[in-house]
Specification:
This protein is of the alpha+beta class and 135 residues long. Helix content is 22%, strand content 29%. The longest helix is centred in the last third of the chain and has 13 residues, at 92-104.
Length: 135
């Protein structure tokens, strides 16, 4: 791969070729393990076919897919709020596992150029916490 997904996710190890981490992995490592590093909360949503799906939700639809989110409330500034599953991660290894889980739940479909092309856009939200667990 060489597109947006490859740039963000990187490439898995294959036939003796080591894995190549993507930008999302490098950024998370820096936030969690870099100077002043700290635990973070992660959420991943996917925009696909005019729907917003929570890729980290532990609840599944009857068809076994990710939960479709509704934009049903607004915050104090009038912005729409999505009720997404947030996962607290204390280490980069935990963050890697969460990223892999979210990426694996993405919608993919074959195209003429790529048999596992992502047909969606994802939003990875990283919220920092201080030592007391507050934002």
């Amino acid at each position: 791969g060489s597109g947006k997904t490859h740039t963000l996710q990187g490439a898995a190890a294959d036939a003796g070729i080591p894995a190549v981490p993507g930008l999302s992995h490098h950024a998370l490592r820096r936030v969690i393990e870099g100077p002043g590093g700290q635990p973070v909360k992660l959420s991943i949503v996917e925009v696909y076919c005019d729907q917003i799906r929570d890729l980290l939700s532990t609840n599944c639809t009857a068809a076994g897919g990710s939960v479709v989110l509704q934009c049903s409330r607004r915050d104090g500034q009038g912005r729409m709020v999505l009720e997404t599953q947030e996962v607290l991660v204390n280490s980069f290894n935990e963050a890697e596992e969460v990223l892999q889980r979210g990426y694996a739940a993405r919608a993919t479909e074959a195209t003429l150029c790529n048999e596992r092309s992502s047909r969606s856009h994802i939003v990875l939200t990283v919220r920092s916490t201080n030592e007391s667990g507050c934002q």
